[in-house]
Give the backbone structure.
Amino acid sequence: MNPNPQHILHDLGMDPGQIRQVDTLSERHGHAVWRIVMSERSYVLKWMPSESARVEIESYRLLQRLGVPTLPLYASTAQALLLEDLAHSKQWRLAEQTDSARAEVGQAVARWYRFFHTAGEALLSQEAPPDFLRRETDVLTPQSLLATGQTLGMANSPVWDLASRHLELLKTALASLSFTLNYNDFYWTNLALSRTSDQPLEAIIFDYHLLGVGMRYSDCRNVAFSLTGEAVEAFWDAYDKVDAREAILDCPLADLCGLQLASQMPKFPQWAQESRQRLLNGELEKDLRAAIAQAEEMSARRLNC
């Protein structure tokens, strides 16, 4: 049965009689996104009936509770979100690809991430993570790592056995560091920028279906990978320093997570080619050994305390 946006709007407390136009922006995998033009303004309506997709709905509610800036959310149900329409917003606009190279954009993104990470760290220092949030590394097991090597036709690499034998050590080291909320999916298509020119540029990151928990560095690395030009250095300068141990642990684990995910896809994705090359040229093994040494040092210090 096809979803009816009029019925969904009624459930959101809106008057379907005020609808002037409905444009379908996306309709796939059982989900739908519409632009709803009503008498007083235009909205974006997202309908997400599946259990997995509702992570975004729960994430909006969590971030609003923490005071983290999000796109204006006008109403929500267990299956739907009614959001600001960036195409007709007076305050925000959707970023363009060229924005990802601008220094002021890198600075604005860093300010949003600093606020987001600080709020997440404060939350997780007081309570357990909500059930719908996961670490990216949760998917890694000794069995899944060995299977990844087989699936990729690269089982002869020493990386898989080395990583599987030391996985628990690495995960214990991660758990001993402070952790926070992670966005995990930065790209310019998920970025809104303020329209006003008389005030410093502001940024909001949206679409929270991959929200999780993890280290600050992991999230920042994901941002820097998608920024270009002057925006990369500007982002790091504005964000400030992160724990150097996080970078050492994150480097090989990020590659392993990426390769495992890529191995499960029908066609090996372009975004994982760099990790594949690092596996082939030995850089991944080198970084993995450095991470293991770091984890062993952290373990020894905990035992001596």
Summary: The first helix runs from residue 5 to 11. Residues 5-89 form a domain with the Phosphorylase Kinase; domain 1 fold (CATH 3.30.200.20).
